[in-house]
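Complex 248.
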Amino acid sequence: MTRRPKMHLVAYLRTNSTASYAGGWRHPAAPLDDVWSPERYQSLARLLENACFDAGFFADNLALPDLYKGRIDDYIGRGGQASLLDPMIALPIMAAATTRLGLGATLSTTFNEPYHLARSLGSLDLVSGGRAAWNIVSSTMDCEARNFGLPAMPDKETRYDRADDVLEACTKLWDSWDAEALVMDRGSGVFADTSRIRAADHDGPFVRVKGPLGIPRSPQGQPVLMQAGSSPRALPLAIAAAAAVPRR
Ligand SMILES: Cc1cc2nc3c(=O)[nH]c(=O)nc-3n(C[C@H](O)[C@H](O)[C@H](O)COP(=O)(O)O)c2cc1C
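Predicted structure with flavin mononucleotide bound:
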């Protein structure tokens, strides 16, 4: 019997009414006033799950883009893509409304420490019953750098070097708890078997973290890793991530 190839569908989302289609927000039927409403994210998640999507992921940046003429006037003023809500708030709401849909967060390796990343993504994996995904980005815009005390973005080589280091540190943090470490046995009074919890001891060129992570091992062990860079320098990170390589 021939096996029919299976298509995988992952939706590109924004916490805004301006996602992929510029000007789409102006359509009379486009909802505009519910960007901060939990119901928007619940119904979006149900819609995707019922349409057999594997996952949805929120694209995200850490600044209002000033890509055109170095100002936000046109990009933001005319409804360009931007996040009007932290996606990490929307994703658990989507988890509560669904049972199978994968839930992706875009988080920057340049502007986050591995401990924050591992804890946030591990928490999302825990509350969603093992449905978290991480779109690993190193960020590209100088307006983002300026929100973190830098005048401009580090060069690509440096950003990807740090991304490799941050991913390695996160992996060690996610592996710092064995699956059986959380015992919670009322009878014996053993809450956690600390022999199954170990330090991460990561000492890399960019980030150092002792660990262990403060939350237990999540159902997937680590989130599904996504990576969209396609330059030669992005490939080692893509290979390390390797679960999903999105294309526009
Ligand atoms: C489908 C797709 C989604 C992306 N989403 C984001 C995003 O949400 N945030 C971000 O900072 N970069 C995003 N990027 C940019 C990539 O992470 C990467 O920086 C970019 O593709 C350039 O990398 P390269 O020069 O190695 O190809 C996205 C790219 C693609 C193709």
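The chain has one domain: 10-241.
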